[in-house]
Write a structure and sequence with these properties.
With 259 residues, this protein is α/β, with parallel strands linked by helices. The chain contains 9 helices and 8 strands. Strand 3, helix 3 and strand 4 (87-96) form a beta-alpha-beta unit. The protein binds zinc ion (ZN). Pfam families: TatD_DNase.
């Protein structure tokens, strides 16, 4: 029961290959996918695709990296958009402190507005936080947000990890841990409580070690699990089972639509 808790399978790079990719994933035991939206323009396409693929679950939101093309008014439609099929969370939302990123005050305004929608809908959130864990934590507190969710592609300290898990979040662990040089990520992963992580690939981004420059897909999930098992000195089945349980703790409705 391998679930990819963060993959952008709606993106154009997968057009024309999705059916085949879904078949290959099923063969490899990768049997569930959470596809979070990034731009407002992607909401319609995701809503269309989730009807086609019963193994998909989705989240809607405005990603901080793409806010230049967004308007706050688009958030007015978020609650209604989330009242559609198999929506697990609001996301992907957050703060991106990267050179060239949108002004931080603007990013915060979008984050706080979307947190309040999630709070109203009683949904968890998918957080994107690049070089901004402490700032995001501040916004969660400021917004009185206590629904938890996933901190996608977590690469912070153990201390920061604990601050998020105390607020009901789990940490998305992905391809970074497959790189031998990622010593800090290995150390943090080895020290995490077993209940604190879920699996993700961030496809088509974040290729695993040895596949740099290629389009990443959820097929790299078994390799990520193998690395997590090695680093945590657990067996693969144990990691797989634990990650699945952790996912269900954040998204209790994950299996609701399965017959
Ligand atoms: Zn993402």
């Amino acid at each position: 029961m391998l679930i990819d808790s963060h993959c952008h399978l709606d993106l154009a790079v997968f057009d024309g290959q999705r059916d085949e990719l879904m078949v290959r994933c099923a063969e490899q035991g990768v049997s569930g996918f959470l596809v979070p939206a990034t731009r407002f323009e992607s909401w319609g396409k995701i809503n269309h695709l989730v009807k086609r693929y019963p193994t998909w679950r989705v989240a809607y939101g405005l990603h901080p990296y793409f806010l230049r093309e967004a308007t706050l008014k688009q958030i007015d439609g978020l609650a209604e958009q989330c009242d559609t099929e198999r929506v697990m969370a609001v996301g992907e939302i957050g703060l991106d402190c990267w050179p060239g990123a949108v002004d931080m005050d603007i990013q915060k305004a979008y984050l706080l507005r979307q947190l309040s929608v999630a709070k109203m809908l009683r949904l968890p959130v998918i957080l994107h936080a690049r070089k901004s864990y402490d700032l995001v934590l501040k916004c969660l507190r400021q917004g009185g947000f206590d629904r938890g969710g996933i901190v996608h592609a977590f690469n912070g300290s153990l201390e920061q990890a604990k601050r998020f898990t105390a607020l009901g979040f789990v940490l998305g662990i992905g391809g970074t841990v497959t790189y031998p040089r990622a010593k800090k990520a290995h150390r943090v992963l080895a020290s995490l409580d077993a209940r604190d992580y879920v699996l993700e690939t961030d496809s088509p981004d974040m290729p695993i070690s040895g596949f740099q420059g290629q389009t990443n897909t959820p097929l790299s999930l078994p390799c990520i699990v193998q690395h997590i098992a090695n680093i945590r000195e657990e067996d693969v089945d144990q990691v797989t089972r634990q990650a699945y349980e952790n996912l269900l703790s954040v998204f209790p409705k994950w299996n609701e639509d399965l017959l």
